[in-house]
Amino acid sequence: MKESVGKVPGLAVILVGTRKDSETYVRSKKKACEEVGIDSYGVNLPEDTTQDEVLNFVKKFNDDPAVHGILVQLPLPKHISEEAIVGSVCIEKDVDGFHPMNIGALAMQGRTPLFVSCTPKGCIELLVRTGVVIKGKHAVVIGRSNIVGTPAALLLQKQNATVTVVHSKTPNPAEVTRNADIVIAAVGVPELVRGDWLKPGAVVIDVGINPVEDLSTKKGYRLVGDVCYKEACQVASKITPVPGGVGPMTIAMLLSNTLESAKRAYGLMMAMLGATESAATVSF
Ligand code: NAD
């Protein structure tokens, strides 16, 4: 893109506050941008930034033609409405796919969102690229959050799976999960899913990233998933590790969405050069 049309994609990341996990995620996203040649425009704002000040930054990036994607790192401090901020990102730059218009389009038959949120998109990409057949299979998604569980279930449905959603009020989660050919766990409970929750040969995507105390490590903790990997890998035919599975895919999908957005912005120039292939293999 740089050589042909003299432009590169741009991603703006807005971070408010000093949460260590958010700072780490933002650093990884910026580093990934650098590696692939995407310009990043970050602002790190103090914890006491007002909602209006954050809205002004979103507006500034909405209006900046060099920015093709805007990401507001969640969670935001309690005095700022996430709904107001996420809803203020223009949908053409909503590379996180959190805008209600994009989530709404995902939920509707025959509608295609401009962007699909990165973590669930990465889950489907992992399945497709490893040759897992989704069509006609029974998929169980554990968790129903707006950013992972719910869009993951909608995406699996769009890929023609029969989908069951298990959540905190499901009385028999192990029994339901045992029927699944494909399991996506997005719960936030360390090692909730045990080996005996799985049908032999099931494919398991573990989204969870949970720090658990481990005094034998330098940091005093280690990261585990929502699935007990040691038990599950004895039963599953395929399983993603934590760390190193869904996390890096989420970042890859963010880069892919930013590239797609830049291609849309420079569509005519790109089309004239015939450089229109997609970075991700799955389209929804
Ligand atoms: P969330 O807290 O918003 O949602 C958790 C969901 O799990 C809820 O819908 C709840 O109903 C359900 N749940 C809670 N306890 C349950 C139980 N005992 N049985 C069944 N369902 C239960 O969390 P989230 O934002 O969806 O994140 C889930 C996990 O995924 C976390 O560990 C988070 O750190 C991780 N995460 C990873 C990535 C990544 O890039 N790998 C991205 C986002 C989130």
TrEMBL record:
It comes from the Eukaryota. Coiled coil: none annotated. This is Uncharacterized protein. The chain holds residues 1 to 284 of 741 of the full protein.
